[in-house]
Design brief:
Number of strands: 22
Structural class: alpha+beta
Number of helices: 4
Low-confidence stretches: 32-37
Strand order of the largest sheet: 1-22-18-17-21-2
Helix content: 25-40%
Strand content: 25-35%
Order of helices and strands: HEEEEEEEHHEEEEEEEEEHEEEEEE
Distance between the termini: 78 Å
Length: 417
């Protein structure tokens, strides 16, 4: 008798099908797990920088470069143009006031000087001729005055005599009137001569004054030309050191052209270039520090030049005490220019992380030091060494401060020792 054999429900085909389905589901679940969780990245501890957040003294400052210059510099410009005939000293020489530096020649100026000298001599000659003529005219008028006075006296004598004779009926009326008319004539002539003499004196005085003024003007012009000729010898205006002398024998220099400068060595200042970004925060009285020969020195802003050139402006700084021994003109100093007073603050060392985060977040290291995770923070002021932490971190926290260029999209860093 045949026996009925039951079919098995778990045959090979079914098992393979179920296994495939489970595998697909597991794969999908694993992918979902990986994508839905935190993105991590393994980093080598030697390739990152970890800094500790700490309390400390904070001062906002910027690093600037300054050039040492003399406190006073006097520029030498050519007062008169000409050809360099002779140099008495060389660049760098120590000068005394009025010591000659170089000599120029100017042919046109020499010719003008000769012409002006001739004008002075001609004016002087004309003035002497005018004075002689005035004196001769005055003598002539005085002689005329003497003659008129003599004639008047004689006419007066005859008039008085005839008047007595006429009163006594000795002479006639006609003879008396003639003597009276003669007397009145010479009296009027005397008055007229006095007026002419007075007017002539005034005229002569005016002519002499004009001639004198003309002569003095010619003399002044001659003196000016002689001074111009003297200016062809360039002299040191003060005691100091001659620098930047730009003149060679045979070279032509125009009037007003820069020849060099005299540095007065009574002290030094520092000329500093600053980025125009800080122009609103720079004012006189700000203090900067620099190190020279392993010793710290302080400078104070004395003058601010607000003109901006190529994105930068300049300030002059003076030493708060004496300048360091051994400092020289033209030397460059690296200065820390303070923009604020010292205050206590929570500090985080500067690093490349700021380029990717803008200071809005950092990778904060866990307590064990094996991982670092994103943490939102708030930063305030900064200087070349530190950021001022305003929120998100506490003293003792450790932060990855090196660049985040390769892992700024990660949520967590796994630090491998």
């Amino acid at each position: 008798m045949d026996r009925v054999i039951k079919k098995s429900k778990w045959n090979r085909k079914r098992i393979l099908t179920i296994a495939a389905i489970v595998g697909v589901v597991a794969l999908a679940f694993f992918s979902w797990y990986l994508t839905s969780g935190k993105s991590k990245l393994n980093v080598n501890a030697e390739r990152i920088t970890i800094s500790e957040v700490k309390n400390g003294t904070f001062q906002e400052f910027i690093p600037v470069n300054g050039v040492v210059l003399p406190v006073t510099t006097i520029y030498l410009d050519a007062l008169e143009g000409g050809r360099v005939e002779e140099k008495y000293v060389e660049d760098g020489a120590m000068m005394k006031k009025d010591q000659p530096i170089l000599r120029l020649s100017n042919t046109d100026l020499a010719l003008n000087l000769l012409s002006q000298q001739s004008n002075v001599y001609n004016t002087l000659t004309q003035m002497q001729i005018a004075r002689n003529q005035a004196q001769q005219n005055t003598v002539q008028k005085l002689n005329q005055m003497t003659d008129v006075e003599s004639q008047l006296k004689e006419a007066e004598r005859i008039y008085k005599l005839n008047k007595n004779l006429y009163d006594e009926k000795v002479i006639g009326l006609q003879e008396f009137k003639k003597s009276e008319n003669d007397y009145n004539y010479y009296l009027q002539k005397k008055n007229l001569t006095e007026q002419l003499l007075k007017q002539d004196s005034i005229t002569n005085s005016q002519q002499l004054d004009q001639a004198r003024q003309s002569y003095q003007g010619s003399q002044s012009a001659l003196h000016l030309y002689k001074k111009k000729e003297g200016d062809l010898i360039v002299r040191s205006p003060v005691d100091g050191q001659l620098t930047s002398l730009d003149a060679e024998q045979g070279q032509s220099k125009n009037k007003g052209e820069r020849l060099g400068q005299i540095d007065v060595l009574s002290g030094y200042k520092v000329r500093v270039d600053i980025d125009e970004h800080y122009i609103s925060r720079i004012y006189t009285g700000l203090v900067g520090e620099f190190t020279f020969a392993n010793k710290d020195y302080k400078l104070k802003i004395k003058k601010v030049y607000t003109q901006v050139t190529n994105g930068r402006f300049q300030v002059d700084m003076e030493f708060e005490s004496q300048a360091p021994q051994g400092i020289r003109r033209g030397q460059t100093l690296q200065i820390r220019l303070a923009l604020s007073d010292e205050t206590q603050a929570l500090l985080l060392a500067k690093g490349g992380f700021y380029q990717q985060t803008g200071g809005n977040w950092v990778f904060k290291v866990s307590e064990g030091g094996h991982t670092a995770y994103k943490a939102d923070i708030q930063l305030g002021r900064q200087n070349p060494d530190f950021y001022e932490v305003l929120g998100g971190l506490q003293p003792g926290d450790k932060v990855v401060t090196s660049s985040y260029e390769n892992y700024d999209k990660m949520q967590e860093l796994v630090i491998k020792k």
